[in-house]
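Students often ask why we bother encoding 3D structure as a string. The short answer is that it lets us treat folding as translation between two languages. Here is a chain of 296 residues written in the first language.
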Amino acid sequence: MTFAGVFAPIPTPFDSRQDIDLARLTRALHRWVRSPLTGFVVLGSNGEAVLLDEKESEDVIAAARAVVPHGRPFIVGTGRESTRATVAATRRAAALGADAVLVRTPAFFKPQMTADAFIRHYAAVADESTVPVLLYNFTAMTGVTLPADAVSQLSRHPNIVGMKESGGDVTRIADLVAAAPLPFALLGGSGATFCAALEAGAAGGILVLAAVLPEACSRLFELARDRRLDEARALQARLLPLAQLLGSTHGVPGVKAALNLVGYDVGEPRSPLAPAPESARAAIRQALSAFEEVAA
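And here it is in the second language, the structure alphabet:
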């Protein structure tokens, strides 16, 4: 199974009582699987995974697995703060049909999260996992950073196949690509710098922007892959305003607002997150107006 291409991190819909809404999730996924996306991630950061309990997480995995066709990579976020809990979550995800797991860095005890601690943690998870493991670094959310030398060492583990780097620092992307060459798959996580990440050697991306505009993001990947870089950079420039709004500016509330605007009924975030204000929705609506596919 390839981990090169464009993957969409799928949000978790909630109903008016803030219970998970599996019917909404299923309807949205049926539309996403008709798109050219390479694969799908559930229970990532944009899936509000940290706001779900374990039973809810299992229900989301099972419902999504029933829709995502086999042969399209189905990746599940299983990061927890302890190694033991991460191993257990990974086992449950694999039993429910995950093709691979995406494991965020533990981060609560920040001063102790050294390169050695990360290496021990990820090696233990990969040793116990029956499916491939993808590392996940998201410094803006966790406050810790997985060092390149730790990534280099972990990339030699036979069951660690890639990494999502959510930061937009293209120099770091290039350093990670150099530290862990193919077949290890370095996946960018920033829609604002996706083209530059591909030019730096990334194998693809796990992009919330791709959930909103799957055709455009898939097209950008194809253009960069085919070295049609002028066209790829021009498309990246068109995508930039929306990518910025969905990233650090408005986060998960903005993502859900954008998806609702383009016809994916995913509801609102779970408290303590609040729905995007109308000013944010207006800005997102304006950024979306540049793309014909939003009328789909």
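Translate back mentally: The beta strands are 5-9, 39-42, 74-77, 100-104, 133-137, 160-165, 185-188, 204-206. Keep this in mind for the problem set.
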